[in-house]
Amino acid sequence: MRQIKNRLDSLPRILYNATKMFDELDTVVLTHDIKEFKLKAGDLGAVVHSYSDSKSAEVEFVAASGKTIAVLTLDSEDIRPMKSHEILHVRGFATA
User: Fold this and answer.
1) HSE-up of 8 (CA within 13 Å, CB side)?
2) Smallest Cα–Cα separation from 48: which of 58, 61, 62, 39?
3) Distance (Å, whole) CA 85 – CA 79
C-alpha cells in the first residue's frame, strides 16, 4: 500500500473539479525564490483563495510566530502541492 501511495504522489495532481487546481487551505510549496518578499523555493504557504480560472491562487506565507510575511497571487507554475513523503525544513527569517 505504501508503494502505491508514493507512486500516486509523483503523478500530477488530479483536479477535484474542472474549475480549481488548489483548494482553500491546501498547503503548497513555492517553486522559485521571490526576492522581493525574501521567500525561497521550498517555502510552504497556505492557499487562502483559489480562483476559478484554475491557474492562480492567493497564497499566504507566515513565520513560525504566526506573523504574515506575504499574501501573493501566484500562478500554478509558482506553486505545487506538498507531497506526503517530503520532510519539512526550518530556516531563519527576519520580520520587522
Assistant:
1) 7
2) 58
3) 17
In the chain, what are the domain boundaries?
2-81
* Residues paired with 62 in a beta bridge: 68
Task: Choose among 33, 38, 46: nearest CA to 78.
Answer: 33
CA distances from 10 to 13, 15, 67, 93 (A): 9, 15, 32, 30
Q: What is the model's pLDDT at position 16?
A: 41
Query: What is the CATH class of 2-81?
Result: mainly beta
Question: CA dihedral in degrees (64, 68, 72, 76; nearest 10)?
Answer: 20
* pLDDT at res. 7: 52
* pLDDT given for residue 95 in this prediction: 67
Averages of pLDDT over runs of 10 residues in the chain (96 residues) are 50 47 92 96 96 88 94 96 92 79
Q: Is the pTM of this model over 0.85?
A: no
